[in-house]
Please model this.
Amino acid sequence: MINTARLRSDLSLLGRETGMMLATVESLSDVEMTAASLCEGWTRADVIAHLASNGRALVKLVDWATTGEEQQLYDSREARDEEIAELAALPRKDLVGLFRDNATYFAEQAQRLSGELSVDEVHLHGKQIPATSIVALRIAEVVIHHHDLDTTWTLEEADLDAQLYGIEAAVRTMRAKNAPGMTLVTEEGDEWVVGDGALKVASDREGLLAWLARGNGEHVEADGPLPELPSW
Model:
């Protein structure tokens, strides 16, 4: 069972980060929606469509955690990509509305995590996710992809705990994809070991997340050359 106070805190944090992203999304014109994002090959509309789809898909992880019945978010990677393409092609008003509605739906369904959980962890793309961290995973998705919209909003504006959840999601990806050995340290006192932990990489949470998520090593320091990270 997820601690009720933690769930309330995580949902409040999710509301904060979603609200900021929604404000950014609503400010984009039709033309700005078609501009490239920081996700290779995706426009801003594609990123927003992904988050809209993800808001409903992650409810399947809530179902898994509460019923014990394994769930797949999508039938296949191709099916996921097709859905994102279809949603990205929607009129701007419809896409923004879908993003808002599915974000609300996820937050409502996540309330079920306050009950007795049937499993300790769920799986996503080869990564093991603690059932108690499903809301944190959605927070990470929102924060990282808000950054991907490449607007005046920056990761610095994300709550420190939201940055932490983003790094935790990134570390799970690094471990699942056998990234080079690293010990990751933040100025805030966090530490993660990936692989053999050979290379020490240090920054604040914002700088470390920018590097892990999108390869921007401008604000990180390391004991040696920064490695090439696996793509997400």
Summary: The radius of gyration is 17 Å. DSSP finds nine helices and six strands in the chain.
